[in-house]
Amino acid sequence: MDEPVLQLGKGDEAGTRRRFVLAVSCALALGIGAGVLLAAVFPSGGRGNALVTMAMPGARSMAMPRISTGRAGNAAPLVVIDAGHGGFDPGATGPSGASEKDVVLPIALALRERLLELGAVRVAMTREGDRFLPLEERVTLAESLNPDLFVSIHADSAPVEEARGANVYVLSPRASDAEAMALARDFNAAGGDADAGDAALGDVEAVLAELARRETSLVSARIADWLESRVRSAMPVHGKFRRGANLVVLRSARMPSILFEAGYISNAEDAERIGSEAGRKAIVNAMAGAITAGLLADAR
Ligand SMILES: [Zn+2]
Description:
Layout: H1 2-41, H2 45-55, E1 67-68, E2 78-83, H3 100-118, E3 122-125, H4 135-144, E4 149-156, E5 166-171, H5 178-189, H6 203-232, E6 237-245, E7 257-264, H7 268-275, H8 277-299
Parallel strand pairs: 2-3, 2-4, 4-7, 5-6
Antiparallel strand pairs: 1-3, 5-7
The chain binds zinc ion.
The site of zinc ion has 5 residues, from loops.
């Protein structure tokens, strides 16, 4: 009688070991299988990096800008207005000490009001107060809303005090002039990763982004044209008015983008104009008229 009990005990131990080995093997196989599956689903290194970054604790979450619809209705084109600089980044400083960030915000807010008054487009803002936003974040925030136009508003500054007047920038791989090149260098440096662009994309994605960018560039150019006629009759214009530069905030392939320089804050007359109620009104009327006309022409 003793022997079979002993055998049973041995058999039990052996059975437990086998079950344990089986369980470990299954877990390993499942783990390897999941790894192979993940590698198949996410083959590119760039994507993997992005996922890891987003999962990092402490990563800043972006607050989505609110969309003001006014009388325009939910299907109306959407314009994202981006007031340059903000927070600890004052931008350029005028002869009387005025900061670019403080001059462009009231223009941006008044532009939203005027666009909503005209009632043809919806509006969102990248910033509504005095806060800092990195350049890439402005673009990412705007892209997340899938807008029909992204308008960044700035005030220029030049070493020569005589430089004055408004101008508009559209994306160009090569700067249109020496001043535009200097602007792109300073501007992009403030954003951190100046050369990011399509570098993080795969070959096919980069080609698709380039094709999409050609489409959006046509719309950007058309809005710049509408803007030129309105601005020329309302305020002094600098040089040829339209300039090209490879600015971070103009690089999106997903939305037409322009950057409007309301005037030179380094010029006393311009600083006075863009900081005044009347000057702001002239700027806002010209911009709102051009944006509305340009986007409605596009929709037809
Ligand atoms: Zn600026």
